Amino acid sequence: MHLISMLAAAALLTAPILPQNQAIAFQNGSVDTHVEVPWVPALVPARGPTVEPWISYDDSTIPVGQGFRWPTVARQDVTPQGESWFLRVGASSTNTLNLEWAVRNTNNVLQFCVYTFTPGQLASFNHVAGTWDGQQSVLYLNGVPVATTPVSGTIRDNQGVLRIGNGDTSVAGYEVWNGTIDELRIWPFARTQAEIQATMNDALQSVPGGVTFNFEGRFVDSSSGFLGTPTGNVPFVPGVQGLTSAPLGGFVHGAASAACAQRPGASLGSRTSGGNGAFEFVAYDGPASRAGALFFAGRSAATPLDVLGVDVWLDLGTLLPSGFGTTTAANGTARIPAPLPPGVAGVQFACQWVFLDPTCGFQGLTASHALLVGLQ
Fold first, then answer.
1. pLDDT tens by residue, 134-144
2. Domains of the chain (ranges, CATH numbers)
3. Cα 315 from Cα 28, distance rounded (Å)
């Protein structure tokens, strides 16, 4: 039986719709401006993040022969050689047109993905995404991969701040971005090309387990309420026009099994909208290469029920015939494709992942938090 046809119809999950018409602006020079966000685990998804903003970049005003400049969209941990990841232009002292996505692993190796663009190519808004899954790093431009690099390890996390619009400030102004930034999102797993393309033209209001800065007149993450603090004058300017503003369609409920060292999370690959053939249920940070299953119920439970040593956040009285099996990848991710037929809407349900994990508990099981899901 088709997965979606098994889900009971109910009221659609909704969230306030935000107008999409603002971004934040920066100018590379002698003055440091940026937005700073205190560390939270969601900023450094250790086993596979996706970082994606809309950006514009003015390469015509970057000086030549006046010091080494690294205009930075965002950098996680700004201590010298301590970054977890960054997205920037490696302009150096020659106005080099290299878009750089880099991740530092726990072996202290900075792993680069580099795309050389042409003069003026990024002068207007372009969508950029960097993904990393411990085996491969990919840099996308407008939903198309433009650079791929083999990688290894897990991401180094020194629990430093996230700095948006700037990097290292040891030389004032030289790492300030030179353009605009809009819709900065951090996902807790490496997304696929189909998933990136499915939402790049959306102004998403939240990402389960992730971070979402819409920059609609404020420096607030709309996924979890993390606050950014501006330094200097960071003006709001016209952003990307014509994006669809809508919820992704899923919200975190409850918590993962507390007794387990490896605590999996549950998220969605793209929007729960009818006709989205790229839609998938995604688990992240699970035990590596272990069997698991995704369970569905008509609604969630207000408090968890202990079942075989794991916290179950599903209302077992509304449990649906489910238990769709899969196996996690080496980086602990798992996916169950569920292409959504056109016209599906108004369906609400809850789901939760369970995985075998011999290192966890007396029954060797671990579970994610639940997700409340609404089809749009």
1. 999 999 999 99
2. 22-245 (2.60.120.200), 249-375 (2.60.40)
3. 54
